[in-house]
Specification:
The complex is a heterodimer of chains A (about 375) and B (about 325).
Chain A: H1 2-15, H2 21-30, H3 33-50, H4 52-55, E1 62-65, E2 68-70, H5 85-88, H6 95-102, E3 107-109, H7 155-191, H8 193-208, H9 211-221, H10 227-237, H11 240-253, H12 257-264, H13 269-306, H14 317-325, H15 332-359, H16 361-367
Chain B: E1 6-17, E2 20-32, E3 37-41, H1 48-55, E4 63-74, E5 77-80, H2 86-92, E6 97-100, H3 114-125, H4 130-143, H5 149-152, H6 162-174, E7 180-184, H7 192-209, E8 212-217, H8 220-226, E9 229-234, E10 237-243, H9 244-249, H10 254-261, H11 304-307, E11 313-316, E12 319-321, H12 326-330
Classes of the chains: A mainly alpha (about 375), B alpha/beta (about 325).
């Protein structure tokens, strides 16, 4: 009777469409509302980061000027992407008036919020608008949603553009750390012996280096500190945890029968490592990467707060916090970037936790 | 006469551990002809699986093949699998020699569909496109008679039962039409009815494709049903080798006799408890001196058996025994 039942349930199982490991994990992840909320927030931030120049800026998203279409807002990502014609025609960064004066036929689609992250918006730059307030007058108001800093630069615009930096730091440095960590861990775990000896010691040595101190030291030495160099350093020191987890997974998986079976079908070491073992080891490795993104954002925030972040024109959350250091009475300089960093780090940690729960079979069973 | 398909000579595989040098396989010689089935029988721990692994040089550290040769002859070319470079060996693995493992539950990669895994085996050895490999995979699933092959192609291993997975393993092993299949206890993890189906399938494929099979098992019933020749292994050595018919009708080594007596007999009712061989297979670190079977042998005689290791000798044409008193015992 019992067997009969098992048979039937087995048949039902077999009748279901194929479900892979990841779609299975996704089904489990979806059940946690907090995880979904965090994931939603992360996606929201990503969208904000990608469309930052279209959300806040003083350059048109699209404009028609002298019969040609331009996308001046791309200049926020890279100076050279802004068409040289605007420099030649002496726009000097102020578009609304210049466009009208130099080509009455022109039209433009403007960002949602007409505020610049890098400079104060002056009087009548946008027809009929007053100059951005500065210092104590810069409370959050209708035009400056998050207020302005001591120089009158809009905080909302800074925050929106800072999202790009924050996420870039997270992804680029963890992308780098992930690649190094997986490679080192895979080599050590798969080959064992003296290879493992070398990679494990290397991991331990790097682990001893305090990231923040190393970065501060390097900034003192390096001539032109850029955000990319900061990311590279965070990545180059943050791979140890990933390497150790990857190594452990590879040590476990290389003993499995399916790896032996793969060898018996004639697969080479590289193929076994990256095609057969890695997909099985990916879930536990992905979790520390997610947590790593959060900590990378935090490190960048601390650096900028200490004044060692990207050089001034770059807008980052940490540098807004830094400007609050000398102007503590301007509470909006503390609250908004602080909340931004806090929520982002929290969201990434929650996503990581959800991922862990969705992919770790032991946690999964404990729940049942 | 042409060289046999696979000829193992004096193979010694040792494990270097903290207990010292442990010879798990100690001078094994075997040969398999094209299209034949050779059964390799023995208790757990006697070195059967290590012999199989050694054949494809899959023994992993601390194990190492210390001496001996494994000549593999195919398409008029002979190579020694012990010394051939890794790169060439990879072409043999899966390409010319397929392998089936004991545990179908864990021998398939859980994150890929079975179609994917069969196709990969094909693509490793043949220059075919993705879709050609896929259609070959489907063909293989038909060949191993998996129910519903079109749908199973995209199934993940965990969606299949043990018997189905073993069929998939056979499909992978056969995907490149190898000359030899090494089946390491292919039916041990399956229940009895499925066992019979899998063996029947293997035998059928052998006769249709002309693939030789090295069948490793501890089940004498399996051997009787499927094998042409049988080699019995004990403590890292072959103790008796003969054709299946000969071995079952006229076993000579006391160990073989013991194994045969330890099987349940359907014809004899109320025959009492099953006969057993006392003791256990000794682990390699304390192989006894002389004949390795003598502490468990009822015919053992001092001083010969515990001092002088018997050699494998041919007592009648094609029948080899490693025992000092084989003729006496049998008469």
């Amino acid at each position: 009777m019992n067997q009969e039942k098992m048979r039937v349930s087995e048949e039902i199982e077999a009748a279901k469409p194929s479900r892979g490991f990841w779609s299975d994990a996704w089904q489990r992840y979806r059940r946690r509302p907090i995880g979904m909320l965090a994931l939603g927030f992360v996606l929201f931030l990503t969208i904000v980061a990608i469309f930052a120049p279209a959300i806040a800026g003083t350059k048109p998203v699209v404009c028609s000027y002298k019969g040609t279409l331009y996308f001046p807002c791309l200049g926020y990502f890279n100076r050279s992407w802004e068409s040289p014609i605007f420099t030649k025609d002496k726009f000097r960064g102020t578009y609304p008036k210049n466009l009208k004066q130099k080509d009455p036929e022109s039209w433009a689609v403007w960002p949602l919020v007409f505020q610049d992250p890098y400079r104060r918006v002056r009087e009548n730059e946008w027809p009929g608008r007053r100059e951005n307030p500065s210092r104590d007058e810069g409370h959050p108001n209708r035009l400056n949603l998050f207020g302005t800093d001591q120089y009158g630069v809009d905080i909302f615009a800074k925050m929106v553009h800072g999202t790009t930096i924050a996420l870039l730091v997270g992804f680029v440095s963890m992308g780098l750390a992930g690649s190094i960590g997986v490679l080192v861990g895979a080599l050590g775990g798969y080959f064992g012996g003296w290879v493992d000896m070398i990679t494990s010691r290397l991991t331990e040595i790097v682990m001893c280096i305090p990231t923040l101190v190393l970065i501060l030291a390097l900034i003192a030495v390096v001539e032109k500190p850029t955000i990319w160099k900061t990311m590279a350093i965070i990545g180059a020191t943050g791979w140890t945890g990933i390497a150790r987890l990857t190594r452990a997974e590879f040590l476990r998986l290389r003993q499995t029968e399916f790896v032996m079976a793969a060898r018996a079908t004639g697969a080479g070491s590289l193929r076994i490592m990256f095609r057969h073992i890695l997909p099985n080891a990916l879930a536990p490795v992905l979790v520390p990467i997610t947590f790593g993104i959060a900590s990378a954002i935090l490190v960048e925030g601390s650096l900028s707060f200490l004044g060692f972040g990207p050089p001034p024109p770059t807008a980052s959350w940490g540098s807004v916090l830094n400007s609050a250091r000398s102007n503590l009475q301007l509470w909006w300089l503390v609250v908004f970037p602080g909340a931004g960093i806090f929520l982002t780090v929290l969201a990434y940690n929650l996503v990581g936790e959800g991922l862990q729960e969705a992919t770790d079979p032991r946690l999964r069973e404990a729940k049942k | 006469m042409a060289a046999p398909l696979l000829e193992i000579k004096d193979l010694v595989t040792v494990f270097h551990t903290s207990d010292g040098r442990l010879p798990a396989v100690d001078g094994v010689s075997l040969s398999i002809e094209r299209g034949q089935t050779l059964g390799l029988v023995g208790e757990s721990g006697c070195g059967k699986s290590v012999t199989a692994m050694s054949t494809l040089r899959l023994v992993s550290s601390p194990g190492r093949i210390e001496s001996g040769s494994i000549m593999f002859t195919t398409e008029g070319e002979s190579i020694d699998l012990v010394t051939t470079p890794e790169k060439q060996l990879r072409k043999v693995r899966g390409g010319r020699i397929g392998m089936i493992f004991q545990e179908p539950m864990t021998s398939l990669n859980p994150v890929f569909t079975i179609g994917n895994q069969i196709a990969e085996a094909v693509q490793l050895h043949r220059k075919v496109s993705r879709s050609e490999a896929r259609s070959r995979a489907l063909e293989m699933l038909h060949l191993v008679r998996l129910a519903d092959p079109e749908q199973r192609l995209d199934a993940y291993p965990h969606q299949l039962s043990g018997g189905m997975r073993q069929r998939v393993m056979i499909a992978i092993a056969l995907a490149c039409e190898p000359d030899l299949i090494i089946a390491d206890e292919p039916t041990t993890a399956l229940d009895v009815t499925i066992q019979a189906q899998i063996l029947e399938l293997l035998d059928d494929l052998r006769s249709r494709l002309g693939t030789a099979i090295l069948l490793i098992t501890h089940d004498l019933g399996v051997v009787a049903e499927t094998c042409d020749d049988v080699a019995v292994m004990y403590a890292g050595r072959i103790v008796e080798q003969a054709s299946a018919v000969e071995l079952f009708s006229r076993p000579l080594h006391p160990y073989t006799i013991g194994l045969l007596q330890a099987r349940p007999n359907v014809d004899a009712r109320d025959s009492g408890p099953l006969a057993t061989i006392p003791g256990m297979v000794p682990p390699p670190q304390d192989f006894p001196s002389g004949c390795r079977f003598h502490p468990r042998c009822s015919h053992a005689r001092e001083p010969q058996c515990n001092v002088e290791p018997p050699s494998l000798r041919e007592v009648s044409p094609g029948h080899f025994v490693r025992c000092h008193f084989a003729e006496e015992i049998n008469s």
